[in-house]
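Known limitations

Structure tokens in this collection are predictions and should be treated as such. Users comparing against experimental data should check residue numbering before alignment. To illustrate the layout, the record for 3-hydroxybutyryl-CoA dehydrogenase is reproduced below. The input appears on top and the generated tokens appear beneath it.
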Amino acid sequence: MAKKLAVIGAGLMGSGIAQVSAQAGWEVVLRDVTDAALARGKDGIEASYAKFVSKGKLAADAAEQALARITTTTDLDAAADADLVVEAVFEKIDVKREIFSTLDGLVKDETILASNTSAIPITKIAAATSRPDRVVGTHFFSPVPMMALCELVRGYKTSDETLAAAREFAESVGKTCVVVNRDVAGFVTTRLISALVVEAAKLYESGVATAEDIDIACKLGFGHAMGPLATADLTGVDILLHAADNIYTESQDEKFAPPEIMRRMVDAGDIGRKSGRGFYPHN
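Generated tokens:
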């Protein structure tokens, strides 16, 4: 019998996690608060499967079977019989803690509760439950169907068994894992990209170099596939500002303090590709 996964949040990350999991044979229930959000998520999954089929990377019948393994709901109670729950909602600690507290009273004793957070300490989320040993971070990368990495984060009380089960899940959906053994804000990947983006934005803000030249320096000098400011536009300047703020609040390390230009860009709505303009124009 296929294992059951509940994904809480049908946005870009949640729908991507649902997509790769269903393709790997998991029975998936995708939950969000509105039918409109669920429809957008399901339509995105269907379109992504269609793209893989058109490129010959996925058989049409396999795509149909995977899509049939995904059900959608606005009812959190639908997670009650899940073997694993992955939360993928907005990066606000209060929202996540409320969801985890509710799930704690809903799901089976042996169910693992995972968060897709990119910067919030897992220990803080786990403390909202009576099972902190069964809470773990599973930080996927966007777009989930294309990105091979999953960052597994051990909270202060996460058990070895929970970490092993999270690895088994992530590897079952085709991901390579790295393990964060100490639950610092931002983990490994978000700390690295936040520090780089913050410094790149400071260089840009002070007129040291253009956005293009800063990105070229990282691509040709360090072999990066994409420069930090182009990465900020792809990810969302607002997302990286929020992540850097979270890390700075937790660590008080000045290298994570975002420059004023990032705040003003977000205030103005220039948050990258999704708005049409960030550090670069996107038409």
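For this record: The chain has two domains: 4-180, 189-273. The mean pLDDT is 96. Please report discrepancies through the issue tracker.
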